[in-house]
């Protein structure tokens, strides 16, 4: 069994805050996802966002807060959501040590270290006693150099190719599985 831990990751810079999402972020988060979805073809959704009712999203965020091994982080600047990192771990015991990570940052803030700050906060949370996380997985478009460089910088390695990750305007786009093994001090 995974032990429940209080999750309070936060990382503050001069004008930005990284914190766990709360149910009352639901409306702003859905709106953020529509904006960021429309800014690139790198995510599993476009400008339509994730098509979720605000109440359901609030419920989902509450479940994420209660989960000991999943995490929804937000990057905020002046109370506006400018970035997001989602990590969802397996629910069954044999796969609860591993999960999928997804990250996004508003285009006007690319290259300012927001993605890096989200990953650092995430890795800090993983290192906190009790998460039990030993493996982080993700899938990235094979031509998304900005994201791949970012992941490599934090130790993620290429674990193989996923063909036909996306079908965009009739064209297949292939992906890369990347993974980060977590060892030492994470029980
Ligand atoms: C990928 C993404 C999350 C990166 O966030 P970010 O806030 O720009 O990341 P950072 O500023 O912390 O770091 C960017 C890193 O990417 C790399 N990078 C920057 N510009 C780059 C470019 N033009 N080409 C390739 N790599 C580049 C660098 O390694 C850079 O780090 P460094 O300059 O400090 O060495 C962001 O660009 C994004 O949201 N893109 C759209 C959605 C997306 O692709 N999500 C990932 C899906 S798998």
TrEMBL record:
Pfam families documented for this protein: Acetyltransf_1 (PF00583)
Ranges in coiled-coil conformation: none
Transmembrane segments: none
Domain N-acetyltransferase: 16-183
MF terms in GO: acyltransferase activity, transferring groups other than amino-acyl groups
Gene3D superfamilies: 3.40.630.30
Name this polypeptide is given: GCN5-related N-acetyltransferase
Organism (species): Parasphaerochaeta coccoides (strain ATCC BAA-1237 / DSM 17374 / SPN1) (Sphaerochaeta coccoides)
